[in-house]
Amino acid sequence: MTDNLSDRGFSPERRAGALVEALPYIQRFRDAVVVVKFGGNAMVDPALSQTFAEDIVLLRSVGLKPVVVHGGGPQIGELLTRLGKETAFVDGLRVTDAETLDVARMVLVGKVGRDIVGSINVHGAYAVGLSGEDGGLITAAPRDAALGFVGDVVSVQPNIVERLLSENMIPVVSTIGADANGQAYNINADTVAGALAGALGAEKAIYLTDVPGLLTDVDDASSIVARASLSTVREYIVDGTISGGMIPKVEACMHAVESGANSAHMLDGRIPHVLLLELFTDAGIGTMITGDLPAGENP
């Protein structure tokens, strides 16, 4: 059989080198829980969705325990438009009345979640879809009366996710939570990913975004910060180095670390196989945010 790997730019030597480079990371992260927030361009681009599913399956296959948390804002907006329902936003958050909540649940749990599960299960019966309402996973409370049924995370009971992980399954979590009375709320996916990563004591919380990482100049991709501590990020926010739309992205990462994750990563989801590049290569990619080291310790 003719080997055309070289024609595609992937010689056998290059592939072997990549595997050797990945080996220590595979050994280091075996059995580690990795929570991945999936959204943005990576979700709406079919090719990127396919490579994302391949990456998640590969993580499982080499011994990691991936958990996928997904949003679905564009898909919700599209269906609301098709239904002729206008949407209002307050500080970037969708005002969610009862009808909009029904649409959000339908899209997140019944459409987006099922699509992700299906794309993963093309490679084997690994993924299981659930929402924050299942098994009391996410207890929510209203964020602001003006926003309607938009919620914040009050608590996370990760038992159902832990049971799935113990069976080597891949949980795919839709970000709908419920209060003690069973009232459902739509919750920001970044917030859920951070809270769930903390509750699981995840090794890593990974956010796939539409930017290369933490940028000190949003117009200059070369200004990326490869690694930063919580205190450094706070200083960037206070002195204005980080501003605008970058703030909620880094705050989600900070929340994950503060909640109990070992580190949080902001990656460009537009890059194929970006998860593998970050986890299994020496150079890494994107930005890693960690807790503050005790005095006298080096990174």
Give the terminus-to-terminus CA distance: 49 Å
On the 0-100 scale, what is the average pLDDT? Answer: 88
Q: What portion of residues is helical?
A: 40-55%
CATH fold-type name: Carbamate kinase
Question: Order of strands side by side in the largest beta sheet?
Answer: 5-8-2-1-11-13-14-12
Low-confidence stretches: 1-8, 295-299
**Main pleated sheet:** 8 strands, mixed
Structural class designation: alpha/beta
Q: State the name of the first-level CATH class.
A: Alpha Beta
How many separate helices? 10
Structural features:
299 residues; alpha/beta; Carbamate kinase; 21% strand; globular; disordered N terminus; disordered C terminus
Structure, explained:
The chain is α/β, with parallel strands linked by helices. It has a single domain, classed as Carbamate kinase. The model is unreliable at 1-8 and 295-299 (pLDDT under 50). The strands form three sheets. Strands 5-8-2-1-11-13-14-12 form an eight-stranded mixed β-sheet, with helices on both faces. Helices cover 40% and strands 21% of the residues. It is globular, with a radius of gyration of 19 Å. The chain contains ten helices and 14 strands.
